Amino acid sequence: MNAKVLLIDDEQEYCVSLKKLLVAHDIICDYCLDPFDALRLIKREAYTLYISDLKMPKMSGIDLLQRIRDIDPGAPIIMISGFASTDSVVEAMRCGALNFYEKPIPFVKLLSEIRKIHERRELYSTGDKTDAGKAGTIITVNEQMHRLIHIARKAAMSDAPVIVYGKSGTGKELFSSIIHECSPRREGPFIKMNCAAIPEALLESELFGYDQGAFTDAKRDQKGKFEVADGGTMFLDEIGDMSLATQAKLLRVLQEGEFERLGSRTTRRANVRFVAATNQDLQLKIQEGTFREDLFFRLSVIQLEIPSLSERPDDIIPIARYYLETFNRKYHKAIKGFSEQVTNMLLVHDWPGNVRELRNCIERAVIFCDGDVISMADMPTHYLKESSGIPDTSTLQSFYDSVSREIILNALEKVQGSRTKAAEMLNISRKTLYLRMKKLGIHV
Asked: Which of 25, 207, 228, 407 is such that its CA lies 20 to 30 A from the CA of 83?
């Protein structure tokens, strides 16, 4: 299915020309000159993303952005403008715009962005967008994560074992379920087993099953997970906690594709694809003698290492907004966003619990928020203590400054350094422009 874009701009000539370019690259494009027509259309049609002008006669692009989010939560929205003020661009980004382009748009960059968004939406269209914990929903703008998604998608087409590394809460199970959903085994079962959550004495019987009389409480025959997963995928979480004895039996299943139930001499075939996950260093465990080297190499045909949330700070706000929209629906609220102080806190916090911690933080804030913006008063106590140390020159402020600097420099370049003309172009006074240039260290 082709990407489908809705362009909202009051300049018909511009809309027609951009549509022709997009259509020439196999992208479906509708356009509306009137924002209210666009809102009516969005209620009937589904789009990959929206491109909206910042300045329109009947409604500002920022107001339209917020109205679109009411209809299509989580929708990617790109803002464009020929004459945007610094404040309006910053406000658009704060309200959740995915990106901003100054006219004339750099078409190659726009085309690349549309294709990336479309690929992500196509890959995870099976995900349940009403439940932030469901498999199939990966919210990311991070290039490293995009590469991992690409690897996972290619890995899915084979039956080779995969091992997923990552700290607790990074999404190891989510990646594993996506490998299953994108594989030829997608119609088969996806069976999960947490090797750390089950006592070792029970783990073997859970995996391999047992025949009646195999042990005292074996009152009847019982299939193990390997049999239940027949034709599908077996996900072994926290495999680093598996005993050496069980590892030896698992190795046989991987190598020979066969096993016996406990108490049985009948050999059974295992038609299963294996995906394992761990937050431990398995090579260190091999050196310590607690993990089999031959099993490690058998499982490590394809390896994925999921970065911690602190290693991809560009994902923090998009993920937070996704959970805000998710819990708005769950708790029947209409919270529009986060205060600047909360946004700063989200960006500087280390997130040792990763995405899981962020999810819980946003859910708690939504529950306690009575206004239309989440403030620090809605956050858990330990985040309040943390926020007291956030300086004014936070990561977000640095981002705002960099955006402002780029816009002002672009304007000055277009008018050959004339501050008067640049101020007119940016729709601000000459004095305001001078003060901002001084603050940002711009010398012309």
From this structure: 25
Q: Which helix (H) or strand (E) holds 277?
A: strand 273-278
**Same domain as 314, residue 301:** no
Residue 75 in domain: yes
CA dist 279 and 170 (Å) reads 10
Q: pLDDT tens digit string along 105-145?
A: 888 888 988 887 777 665 444 333 333 333 346 788 788 88
134 within some domain: no
Domain residues for the domain of 339 are 310-387
**pLDDT beyond 80 at 99:** yes
Phi-psi map region of 213: left, alpha, beta (phi>0 left; psi -120 to 50 alpha): left
Answer yes or no: do 40 and 166 share one domain: no
Contact between 274 and 161 under an 8 Å Cβ cutoff? The reply is yes
Across the chain, what does the average pLDDT equal?
85
Q: Find the mean pLDDT for residues 36-59.
A: 88
Cα separation, 15 vs 126, in Å, equals: 32
The Cα 91–Cα 94 span in angstroms is 5
